[in-house]
Amino acid sequence: MMMDDDVYPRSKTEVPAKKLSACTAKAVQANPHPDTRLLNAAYRAARKERWRKALCKDWKHIDDE
């Protein structure tokens, strides 16, 4: 499970320490389905980010099979 960088620190302050794992497990079990249009728009926006292109170049040699 991936969390936005701002979500984890916030969850540490809002969810009691002994309940964080249970809260995470409950969120995963809920199996949320994002809006397809919003998800596709986010992917299109991410494609335009320069740092992602540089990252692809760094990893290009890994994908060669």
Describe the structure.
It is a single chain. With 65 residues, the chain is an all-alpha fold. The protein has one domain. The chain has helices at 7-14, 20-29, 36-47, 50-59. The longest helix is centred in the middle third of the chain and has 12 residues, at 36-47. The protein starts with 6 loop residues before the first helix and ends in a 6-residue tail after the last helix. The relative contact order is 0.07.
Can you give me a brief rundown of this structure?
The model has no long low-confidence stretch (mean pLDDT about 80). Helices cover about 60% and strands about 0% of the residues.
Task: Give the helices and strands, then pairings.
Elements: H1 7-14, H2 20-29, H3 36-47, H4 50-59
Radius of gyration: 17 Å
What structural class results from the helix and strand content?
mainly alpha
How much helical structure, as a percent, in the residues? Answer: 55-70%
In the predicted model, the low-confidence regions spanning at least 5 consecutive residues are none
Distance between the termini: 27 Å
General shape: elongated
Number of helices: 4
Q: Quick check: average pLDDT? A: 81
Largest sheet: none
Number of strands: 0
